[in-house]
Amino acid sequence: MSKRQKSFLKFTMILPWIIMICIVFSLQMQCENGGEEKTEVPPLTPEETIKLEAGFNNYLHNDLFPELKSVLLGDDAKRIKEVLGERVTLYDPRGNKLTGENIEEFRNSLTGVTDVEFTVVYLNVFAIEDPDEQPDRLDTIIATGHSVFVYRLIKKNEEGKEISNDSGSGSDDEPHPKRCVWGK
Fold this sequence. Notes:
Elements: H1 3-34, H2 46-73, H3 77-84, E1 88-91, H4 103-108, E2 113-127, E3 141-156, E4 162-177
Antiparallel strand pairs: 1-4, 2-3, 3-4
């Protein structure tokens, strides 16, 4: 065999190895970068987070609390279950969580209550670092609002003065998609 034939033979044996190594490295890079999809949703700025907190606070005071007040002072215990849903948790003055079994009992204990006052103790909106982008961009959850509040049950005494000696607490956890009600 001539020198050229030997070189060519070496080259033809090395070439498949080089191609295989390139393919392996290429596949490895694809696997490593496969889970790192860049989201098109930009992260929230601190100013946007503050606006969301203000919107969440307005939602609590203008929507959730009036609705809770109306169902607590109303006669429909089933409506309380609807308003509480999965995101709102309410505790009675003894610290028991209101669930399906004890809502009727709690509602019956509210005889004589003329008003309910709510006070927000804690409110925070957490931006989601890497949101799972949904097919409809307006459904992508970009933040979550958390609040803890207390409520006071107000009764009137014989002289017509308001007295309050019962209070309970509650919490609300609300996801915030782009089309959220409280993020306006």
